């Protein structure tokens, strides 16, 4: 029983991080109906930002999240300005293929600059510390990442659902032309949404070097899992993506522990198929 | 407009095929094995993308799962030769049948999904197959299957010294896939597929059984993909899961078709004729430097091409044709994009 609880906790902690990565993707998908294939690569770049800040300037990842969040915000806004902007109104696959090209570019740029080696940041504040509650162990870096995820996703959700800017975003998501006629600058909304979506994944990537090693391929799997979470949660639903993220984390951890480590992602992708076959628009979709 | 049994465009195609068939007789061309290699890959990937085009372009179901069928075909041939020590042909046939069967089983529930949900479901299927094959010992697991050197010839679909035979085999696959699609274009079933793409509800209201049409198109597409996969492994002489069953492979088929012009007969050929040389020459020029310079440039070129010409190269050709003949392109049936 205790083992099961521990497995469950590990799954929930990693699931919360998936949820934060997915929330950024969900925002972009929900507002623009664009699948950003380079989302995992944003995460990878955020991890490199945090790693190099830690390695060269001795800044701890807990502090670096500000820098990595801002960096990916700018990268996201630039992606919109330079690429996505030109694919709007074109065939729906155009944006997906263009961001696939971008993902390839970013991944190999990092491979070229930073080598394919796994880079690990040592002596971080959270490092190998753990909290203990009875017999249950909470690794400090994962716990901090999970709390951070909860705060950031909550903040984004609050902004979207109850501020003037958030209403403008919702209006733009529903009908761009009508929103434009109501005096909303939809171009600005798109830039900011791409930026904020990037910032979410930037913050997630910022804290991850405290417990994960950085390499150019690290983003691919996270990106794929983020797609799964967003689609499982339901089109553009942030609570849905959050719930799906936790579910994915738990399934991954349970399948990895009780069946075999190699089956954990098969279980995760199988879970997605099972959910959408039952509810073709995701858990919270309509 | 009713498509005629044989028209001027077909005559151009036949002339083009004749030129392709005669190409290896030109010594300056055949003597350069790198050029032959690029031509073989162009023909193979044009055929493979044409197989994707049946379901993705004509039927409008954008699948990112075709590397699964490609991989099943590759493993069919690979198992027949490596595991059972025979000729690849029974494996090719079994692979094609199996790919069609798998396509029906996994597509039936997936067709209930729409838009991005369908696309992501096909990503998930690729990942499940990829990881499943990595740990499945019977098919060689993560090590994959390495071909032994066996006697060359058509019976073993393997040649050691020259690439000319491989070239003709690739050309045969190219002719088969393009011939089938050309035939479909004028056939009743081809009209059903396009009707389903343009509006499923409308097609159903006119008596088209859209599920049956999509399943038939998917299984035909999967069987042809398996055929291409079998040739691919016979040409490379090894197979492992990341090589054939990966998202990158699936994306390649989609990219080639979309950049060429999806839902058109010439699109996959145009796309392959541009993308494959780009990939091979950037690899040859910059791949040796290490550190993925070739893929950086390739990624950049994909972005530029998608942003500048999302309707595909067929769009460029059509506007050029319009410019020279002064005709309106509307009567040509503008079907240059996917509506999913």
Distance between the termini of chain B: 24 Å
Structural class by sheet pairing and helices of chain B: mainly alpha
For the terminal residues of chain A, how far apart are their CA atoms? Answer: 37 Å
What is the total tally of β strands of chain A? 2
Task: Give the class of chain A from helix and strand content and strand pairing.
Answer: mainly alpha
Mean pLDDT of chain B: 84
Name the shape of chain B in a single word. globular
The main pleated sheet of chain B reads as: 2 strands, antiparallel
Give start-end ranges of low-pLDDT stretches of chain B. Answer: 328-340
Low-confidence stretches of chain A: none
CATH fold annotation of chain A: ABC transporter involved in vitamin B12 uptake, BtuC
Pair of chains with the largest interface and how many residues each contributes: A-B, 45 and 45 residues
Helical residue percent band of chain B: over 70%
Q: What's the architecture of chain A, going by CATH?
A: Orthogonal Bundle
How many domain units of chain B?
1
Q: In DSSP terms, counting alpha (H) and pi (I) runs of 4 or more, how many helices of chain A? A: 11
The main sheet of chain A orders its strands as 1-2
In terms of DSSP E residues, the strand content of chain B is: under 5%
In terms of DSSP E residues, the strand content of chain A is under 5%
Order of helices and strands of chain A: HHHHEEHHHHHHH
Task: Explain the overall architecture.
- The complex is a heterodimer of chains A (286) and B (340).
- With 286 residues, chain A is mainly alpha-helical.
- Chain A is built from 11 helices and 2 strands; from the N terminus they run ααααββααααααα.
- Chain A has helices at 2-32, 39-57, 61-87, 93-114, 140-162, 164-174, 176-181, 186-207, 218-233, 238-258, 264-278, and strands spanning 130-133, 136-139.
- A two-stranded antiparallel sheet of chain A has the order 1-2.
- With 340 residues, chain B is an all-alpha fold.
- Chain B has one domain (8-245).
- Chain B has 15 helices and 2 strands.
- A two-stranded antiparallel ribbon of chain B has the order 1-2.
- In chain B, α8 (188-198) packs across α10 (210-236).
- Chain B is globular.
- Chain A binds chain B through residues 29, 33, 35, 83, 86-87, 90-94, 96-98, 100-109, 111-112, 115, 224, 227-228, 231, 235, 262-263, 265-266, 269-270, 272-273, 276-277, 280-282, and chain B through 62, 109, 112-117, 119-121, 123-125, 127-128, 131-132, 134-135, 247, 251, 254-255, 258-259, 291-293, 295-296, 298-303, 306-307, 310-311, 337-340.
